[in-house]
Amino acid sequence: MTKFKLISFDTCPYVERSRIVLIEKGQEFEQEFIDLQNKPDWFLKISPRGKVPVLVLDDRPIFESSVINELLDELVPEPAMFPRDPVARAQARSWIVYNNDVVFPALAMHWFARGNVERREKGRKAIREAFERLDSFLASREDGPFFMGEEFGLVDANYAPIFTRWAAMREIGEETLVEGLDSLTAYGEALLQRPSVQQAQAEDLTTKMLETIKFRDGAPA
Ligand SMILES: N[C@@H](CCC(=O)N[C@@H](CS)C(=O)NCC(=O)O)C(=O)O
Asked: Which of 53, 77, 82, 178 is the most buried (most CB within 10 A)?
């Protein structure tokens, strides 16, 4: 029996983050996929916000991807995915909060604009601003190729789903959002080469993303 059970949704980027961490930690895990349009009662009981991922560990549910990932790093200490130095660790957490609170909401605004041109434009502007900020941090660090240096860590698991969705952004002509941002582009390439990032992504993710964007575009605003 596997120790970890992840309540999942195929294309969810937050679930993808936890899958990356479980793979990096070499853990076998079970996944239970649920229909987010028709959430089962048992799920609503263990997920106060009705969101995936939820990690179920010995019948104890943990929600919020960032919390799940820190827990996994504590439970399975090797390979360590957070810097040991407390200041660097705090810095890593800060950039995770930045991604959760700024970058992902901007991406979601763009992807789910539902044909609302003004909303899509607002999302695009917010993405570009956030990307410029990330690029300047990445350009200022002393070593790479990952966010906090040579080692792949929790910040990287947090940011990777942006880049696994980038092929879909290219398809819809949004590749200019990274234009001139060389450090961010190089960082994205390093993430996409990571085996855990490749394994964690949903099959046919690009096609599914494009369908989602199209479906949302057709839906009433
Ligand atoms: N802050 C949460 C966000 C999770 C999230 O938004 N998950 C989406 C799917 S990608 C979800 O479950 N949405 C269902 C809903 O909001 O009804 C995390 O990091 O775990």
From this structure: 53
Token couple for 122: 């607002």
Residue 113: pLDDT band with limits 50, 70, 90: confident
Atom of ligand 1 at shortest range from CA of 52: 12
CA of 53 to the centre of ligand 1 (A): 7
Q: Which residues are catalytic?
A: 12
Domain assignment present for residue 81? The answer is: no
Q: Chain-wide mean pLDDT for the chain?
A: 94
Residue 34 located in a structural domain: yes
Q: Which residue's CA is minimally distant from atom 14 of ligand 1? A: 51
Distance 36 CA to ligand 1 centre (A): 9
Mean pLDDT throughout 72-87? 96
Does the global pTM surpass 0.90? yes
